Amino acid sequence: MIFGWQVTFCVIFLRHAHPSASFYLLSYDDNKLPLLQKAADQPEVLVPIRLDLEIENHKLRDTFLWNKNEMLISPEEFAALLCDDMELPAALFIQPIASAIRSQVEQHPGDLVAMDEEDRRVPIKLNIHVGNISLVDQFEWDLSCPQNSPEEFARLLCNDLGLGGEFVSTIAYSIRGQISWQGRSMYAFGDPPLPTLKSVLRTPIQDTEHWCPRLEVLTEAEMEKKIRDQDRNTRRMRRLAQAVPQW
Question: Distance of CA 247 to CAs 102, 133, 145, 187, Å?
C-alpha cells in the first residue's frame, strides 16, 4: 500500500521463437505481501536435482538446485515451464519431472554435521563435461564451515579457468550432491574424519599434480564414453544412497 493506493506489479514473459508462442503472467499485489514475506524469511536449503528421463523417444537430462523451502512455485509449475522451454510434450513430462523433484527433495538428509564441529573435511571429486570440454579436479571441503558456498566456489573456479556459465551450475550441483552423500555415509557408517591439518603446506610435493584442475577438449567418441561412464556412476551412487539408513 503506497499513499493509500493499491499497487499491482505484473511481469510478463513473452516467447516468440516457437509457432505456438505463449506468455507467462506473474502478478503480485500488496494482498500477497504476507506470502512473499513468509517465503523470504524461510532459510534457503538447496537440494541437488538430477533429471534423466526418456519417454516415447524424448530424452531429458538436466541438473539443477531446488530450494527445499520453496513456496512460490510448485514442482508442477516448474515442470510446465521447463517443458515449454525445451519443447517437450507437457502431457508426458510434467508429472514425471514433478515426481522426480519431490522424491529427491524428500530423500535429501539436510545438514548432518554440527556447525560446532571443527575440521570435518571430505574429498570432493569433479568429473564434469559440458559440450566437448571436460573438467577433472579434486579438493577437500570442510562440512563444518558455514561460510563454504558451493555456488560461490563454482563461480570463482569458472572465472579462474575461463569456463562458461553452464559449468557453474553443474559444478555446484556436483559438490552439493557429494556433500549430501558424505554427510550421510559419515554418520551411517562411522567413516573416520581426515587427519587434522598441522600446516597449510602439503607433502609429498609430487602429489600436487593430482590436486589441481585439468581441462581437456574431447572428441565425439570420448564424449560419448564419458557420458556412459557418468550415467553408470550416477546409478551406482543412487543405489548406495538408497542403502544408507535414514537418520
Answer: 19, 39, 21, 8
| Eight-class DSSP state of 207 | G
> What is the per-residue pLDDT across 42-80, written as a single tens digit (0 to 9) for each?
888 888 898 989 999 999 988 888 999 998 899 999 999
Distance CA 236, CA 231 (A): 9
Q: Count the alpha carbons within 13 Å of 208 in the hemisphere toward its beta carbon.
A: 7
Residue 189: count of CB within 10 angstroms of its CB: 9
> Residues for the chain: how many in total?
247
Which set of grid coordinates corresponds to residue 162? 575461463
pTM of the model: 0.67
| DSSP run (H or E) holding 19 | none
Query: What is the C-alpha separation between 27 and 12, in angstroms, rounded?
Result: 9
CA pair distance 35, 100, nearest whole angstrom: 26
3-state secondary structure of 235: helix
Task: Give the single-character DSSP code of 31.
Answer: G
